[in-house]
Amino acid sequence: MNRIISSSLAAFGTITLAAASSAALAQAFPNKPVKVIAAYPTGSGPDAVLRVVGDKLTKMWGQQILIENKPTANGLVAGEQAKRSPADGYTLLMMDDAHLNANPRLYKQMPYDTVKDFEPIARLYQTYFFFVVPANAPWKTMPEFIAAAKAKGDKFTYGSWGIGSVGHLGVVAFENATGLNMTHIPFQGVTLLYPAIGNNEVDWGFGTVASSGAVARSGKIRYLAAAAPKRVVGYPDIPTIAEAGGQADFEVRSWVAILAPRGLPPAISAQLNADINKTLADTDVRDRLATMGFEPMPSTPAEIAQAIESGGKRLGGLIERAKISLD
After folding, report:
1. Structure confidence at residue 163 as a pLDDT band (50, 70, 90)
2. Per-residue confidence band for 320, with pLDDT thresholds at 50, 70 and 90
3. Which fold would CATH assign to domain 130-251?
4. What architecture does CATH give domain 32-124+255-322?
5. Mean pLDDT lowest among 25-29, 68-72, 136-140
6. Average pLDDT for 286-307
7. Is the pLDDT of residue 85 over 50?
8. If you average pLDDT over residues 236-248, what whole number do you get?
9. Which of 120, 128, 248, 289 could form a disulfide linkage to 294, CB 3.0–4.6 angstroms apart?
10. Cα angle value 99/227/302 (rounded, 5°)
11. How far apart are alpha carbons 74 and 183 in whole angstroms?
12. Are 126 and 254 in contact (CB under 8 A)?
């Protein structure tokens, strides 16, 4: 009996020590700068959000947030680098649902596994996309736009910032919904895409205010409608696709999340989630994201994992039907 009691006490002591160590680890975190590898170029919408959130976290933690932009290869470079980093909370990864859900279905050989190599920490925001057209385009409503696309057939072109991107797959979904057959012109990033639309090099493309706003303010492009169920916060003058005479149930949206290499101590994961969600509740942060057309999206890791699973099925279906491959 004494041996049983001693064993139980020893086990209890081990559990207590582990819990205490985990708590101490959380209290000590972070005690040095935290790096975020971002699968986006400097100056893009996600990059701008990360800098807003990063500034708040820097003030909260007293430690600098270092942003390392790795936008090449559809996020594969960013993902591989993050995968090889220590699971200690000091290297994080910023990706969107296309990087996490579409890439594994676009490439046969992947340098990372979305589920096995990463664990969700916090979702930053979601955003709906606008139909971006040249400022001098004659279409004022969705029926006019669709009629013009049907008349030109595959000579009606759209641009995106890459094969398999949300901008590309969103149009694939739109083609499925409308019976259109347009020609895709991929560009090397958003900085080239929207000036090309403004110069009538392509007929249109999807875009957020954050990524296309500078070109819109120059008067070269305009927003025909929002592919959203309701008007986008901060942009009440832009009608939804349904209000503009289009499909009532069609939407194109994306979300961006922070992840960590799998194996992160639970106490650090919980702290990161709580601190990022607290930052997203800040009025200043919410107002600044609204100017970009972004909606803060506090989430639990479990909710993000569920979104990855459901989003993978949805995007996988689009990729399969369109026979898109990057191998």
Report:
1. confident
2. confident
3. D-Maltodextrin-Binding Protein; domain 2 (3.40.190)
4. 3-Layer(aba) Sandwich (3.40)
5. 25-29
6. 94
7. yes
8. 94
9. 289
10. 45
11. 21
12. yes
What is the pTM assigned to this prediction?
0.84
And the tokens for 107?
């490439």
| Residue 230: Cβ within 10 Å count | 12
Integer angstrom CA distances of residue 182 from 15, 189, 240, 241, 244? 61, 20, 22, 19, 21
Residue type, 273: N
Judged by phi (left if over 0) then psi (alpha if -120 to 50, else beta), residue 245 lies in left
The full set of domain ranges for the chain reads 32-124+255-322, 130-251
| Angle, vertex CA 110, rays to CA 107 and CA 112, nearest 5 | 140
Euclidean distance between CA atoms 97 and 99, whole angstroms: 5
Cβ 308 vs Cβ 113: under 8 Å: no
Classified as helix, coil or strand, 107 is coil
Q: Is the dihedral of CA 241, 43, 255, 317 positive or negative?
A: positive
More confidently predicted of 11 and 264: 264
| Per-residue pLDDT tens digits for 135-150 | 999 999 999 999 999 9
Contact predicate 128/74, CB 8 Å: no
For residue 125, the surrounding DSSP H or E stretch is strand 118-128
pLDDT digits (tens, 9 = 90+) for 268-278: 999 999 999 99
Label residue 27 by pLDDT band (50, 70, 90): low
Phi, psi dihedrals of residue 191, rounded to the nearest 5°: -65, -25
Strands 130-134 and 118-128: unpaired
**Residue 302 CB burial class (10 angstroms; 0-12, 13-18, ≥19):** exposed
DSSP letter at 127 equals E
Is there a shared CATH topology between the 32-124+255-322 domain and the 130-251 domain?
A: yes
3-state percent helix, strand, coil for the chain, nearest multiple of 5: 50, 20, 30
Residue type, 282: D
